[in-house]
Design a protein that fits this description.
The protein has 105 residues and is mainly α. The protein is 89% helix and 4% strand. The chain has one helix and two strands, in the order E-E-H. The longest helix is centred in the middle third of the chain and has 93 residues. The radius of gyration is 43 Å and the shape is rod-shaped.
Length: 105
């Protein structure tokens, strides 16, 4: 029999079982740490890839934003075109009417 840190007597087979469980736990913790290191490396690689994609798509986003601005300008021109067509049509009608009146003299 051996004595633990608290003064309790521990049977040798129990002590061997405890040591075996502690060794298993230590091995499991080592595996978890190794997996954590591998996951951290993969995360770093993924982060680099994400940053590269962000840099590549930044130009596309800028292009689409410029298209959005161009569409707004074209929309404004389209809104102006309708009244301008009425004005040009009225002017054409007036010139045609004037030419008709001049032609009758």
């Amino acid at each position: 029999m051996i004595q633990d840190d608290f003064g309790n007597l521990v049977d040798l087979t129990t002590a061997a079982t405890i040591h075996a469980r502690l060794d298993d736990g230590d091995q499991r913790l080592s595996r978890v740490e190794a997996e954590q290191i591998a996951l951290r490396r993969e995360l770093e690689a993924n982060t680099l890839a994400t940053q590269a994609v962000k840099a590549d798509t930044a130009e596309l986003v800028e292009l689409f934003q410029s298209f959005k601005g161009a569409i707004k300008v074209l929309n404004w021109l389209g809104k102006l075109a309708k009244p301008m067509a009425y004005i040009v049509g009225c002017g054409t009608a007036c010139v045609g009417f004037w030419a008709t009146l001049k032609g009758q003299k």
